[in-house]
Amino acid sequence: MQHFRKPTTEFDDLNFKQRHRRRMSLPMTNRPTMEQESIVEKMERLMASQNVTDVPKTAGLVAKIVSSLDTAAAAAAAELAKTSTVRQKSISPESGNRNKQQQQSTNRSRRDSNASHSSMGSSYTSDEEDSDEDDDIDSISPRFRQPRPINTKKQSDFCVRDIRDAEFGRREIEYAERGMPGIMALRESAKDDQPLKGARVMGCTHINAQTAVLIETLLDLGATVRWSSCNIYSTQDSVAAALAERGVPVFAWARQSEDDFWWCIDQCLTTDSWRPNLILDDGGDATHLMLKKYPASIKLLKGIVEESLTGVHRLYQLSKTGKLLVPAINVNDSVTKTKFDNLYSPRESIIEVLKRTTDTLLGGHIALVCGYGEVGKGCASALKGAGVIVFVTEIDPICAIQAW
Ligand SMILES: NC(=O)c1ccc[n+]([C@@H]2O[C@H](COP(=O)([O-])OP(=O)(O)OC[C@H]3O[C@@H](n4cnc5c(N)ncnc54)[C@H](O)[C@@H]3O)[C@@H](O)[C@H]2O)c1
């Protein structure tokens, strides 16, 4: 689940805020309505058609005029004035034309992507605020960027959206560590014994700050890892950058294409000098690619850990046809997964996801929850708490009674 976190006051750093603003949602009150957005667009179009060169000044003027009509629209105009200043500073005439065709298609796909998966997930000022370098970063898939970016240790065995985001990502990881005292205690107590020495873990999971804490724990306990994302949308780019900066071979970025997705997994499955002996999978994609593309490497595997029910279903199918040649652990067999993660995580995320995607008040809406297992219980309870009228379907009589 992608969490667009805003810095807390603790991380209240202007530079970071500015650079990361396009990845963070604005508070509800500052978010422009469709009408305000179109005002900004209209002003931009007008200024372009009139060949207005001093955009900030003109937009400032327009802001003043509009303020007498509508304070919210004025805020949007003022925002344009501010962001245009940033843009004017950073875009030279030559760079404006660079990769124009590619940029157009990428901006189109970014818009499509934003529209399809989150209407509020990215700031409405994102296009305006991009610096020249950011334009490049967004227009070329990280996998095709030349020269290959390097971290401060001059390593290039990674592929992330923007290695410059590493410092912010490191702060996010440190913040997550504070909320994960169990794994941090394990890290501390087992560090000297190096119990994972010799483990070569290929990970394919959501990459967020909490996963980074897990990855760094594996490293501290002696494992070597290569990591990709199990989802084309959910990578926290700054966190991936922080891992890359530390030297972790991580191949992931948010809003990647299907081709990029499979390419990233492939980069983690095999290199000239490294083959995994463990796969930590979420959804079964890494396992699937390994079986399909590198069947000979299967015998190097000591085991597979599968995080999701979907992935486990795929493993059962392989097992039935005799193609599952290595032991596999179903994480959902662990009570701490089913009774905690399955219940509490969707309970936390369901409301946020619905709000981000529908941008509407939930109270009074009618929701149908299909299945009253752990996930269904969590979702139903959160929806009820938000004032939604909840219906449940269930085929198991016990679970059905629990829903009563
Ligand atoms: N655990 C997580 O964090 C998480 C996150 C996202 C999605 N999911 C997905 O949510 C789904 C449910 O997960 P869970 O952990 O609650 O599983 P579960 O097995 O605990 O619950 C599933 C429930 O659905 C009921 N059911 C099955 N078929 C049904 C049907 N046709 N009509 C109505 N009810 C039916 C079952 O009786 C059962 O009670 C899975 O597909 C899982 O992959 C889980």
From TrEMBL:
<dbReference type="Pfam" id="PF00670">
    <property type="entry name" value="AdoHcyase_NAD"/>
</dbReference>
<feature type="region of interest" description="Disordered">
    <location>
        <begin position="1"/>
        <end position="35"/>
    </location>
</feature>
<keyword id="KW-0520">NAD</keyword>
<dbReference type="InterPro" id="IPR020082">
    <property type="entry name" value="S-Ado-L-homoCys_hydrolase_CS"/>
</dbReference>
<dbReference type="InterPro" id="IPR042172">
    <property type="entry name" value="Adenosylhomocyst_ase-like_sf"/>
</dbReference>
<keyword id="KW-0963">Cytoplasm</keyword>
<dbReference type="GO" id="GO:0033353">
    <property type="term" value="P:S-adenosylmethionine cycle"/>
</dbReference>
<keyword id="KW-0378">Hydrolase</keyword>
<keyword id="KW-0554">One-carbon metabolism</keyword>
<feature type="domain" description="S-adenosyl-L-homocysteine hydrolase NAD binding">
    <location>
        <begin position="342"/>
        <end position="404"/>
    </location>
</feature>
<dbReference type="InterPro" id="IPR036291">
    <property type="entry name" value="NAD(P)-bd_dom_sf"/>
</dbReference>
<dbReference type="GO" id="GO:0016787">
    <property type="term" value="F:hydrolase activity"/>
</dbReference>
<dbReference type="GO" id="GO:0005829">
    <property type="term" value="C:cytosol"/>
</dbReference>
<feature type="compositionally biased region" description="Polar residues">
    <location>
        <begin position="115"/>
        <end position="125"/>
    </location>
</feature>
<dbReference type="InterPro" id="IPR015878">
    <property type="entry name" value="Ado_hCys_hydrolase_NAD-bd"/>
</dbReference>
<dbReference type="GO" id="GO:0006730">
    <property type="term" value="P:one-carbon metabolic process"/>
</dbReference>
<feature type="region of interest" description="Disordered">
    <location>
        <begin position="82"/>
        <end position="156"/>
    </location>
</feature>
<feature type="compositionally biased region" description="Polar residues">
    <location>
        <begin position="82"/>
        <end position="107"/>
    </location>
</feature>
<protein>
    <submittedName>
        <fullName>S-adenosylhomocysteine hydrolase-like protein 1, variant 3</fullName>
    </submittedName>
</protein>
<comment type="similarity">
    <text>Belongs to the adenosylhomocysteinase family.</text>
</comment>
<dbReference type="InterPro" id="IPR000043">
    <property type="entry name" value="Adenosylhomocysteinase-like"/>
</dbReference>
<dbReference type="Pfam" id="PF05221">
    <property type="entry name" value="AdoHcyase"/>
</dbReference>
<feature type="compositionally biased region" description="Acidic residues">
    <location>
        <begin position="126"/>
        <end position="138"/>
    </location>
</feature>
